[in-house]
Design goal:
By secondary structure, the protein is mostly helical. 81% of the residues lie in helices and 0% in strands.
Amino acid sequence: MRLMDILSPLWETMKGILPLTAILSVVQVVILRKPMENVRDFIIGVILATIGLHLFLKGTNMSLIPLGDSVGRNLYVLNRKWVIILLGFIIGYFGTLVEPALKTLALEVEELSAGAIPHKVLIHGVAAGFGLGMGIGLLKIIANIPYIKIIVPLLLLVIVLAFFAPEPFGSIAMDSASATTGPVNIPLNMALAIGLASIIEGVDPLLSGFGIIGLTSIGAMVSVLVLGILTKF
């Protein structure tokens, strides 16, 4: 029974990886008629990826999610709202710095731009925008502001900035927004937001706790577009 308790979650993770791996293998071997370069390393890599993803998800459920929920529930004891917003910015900022997808994107951008857009500048710029979005999201929950009153002005701001930002910053901004929604930020920030919303009287956590990931993504887009505009000068 103990062995099944261990293998069952691992099999659930494998069911997410194996179909994608099989599709790519069929495309490579059958459709493109290209041989696998190193079958042994490929098989070992799939096994390691499965185990690594399983351990990461298990660790996240055991640490980041309950910790984020606990911090969110206890944040409201702070009397100053600006302190809560500042802490949200800091958590969002440092959480974004460890996102592997963002690092990969930043390195690709640096390579394609021949060093004109350093990867560290892009990473920290995106992290600042994500943190800003996180702060706005917590303000929305604390003040119980309707989502529409925040999302519409931010989207209009993105459209205006996109007109002034040089290419390819508009495209980079959209990709950066997606790269921030990775395995670290989503569980941590959603747990934090829902935990905070659940403790405030008169606030529905199902309505107020969700949507914060969208706000952080828009914040990342705004920061990248502003960074693009600054490069003109």
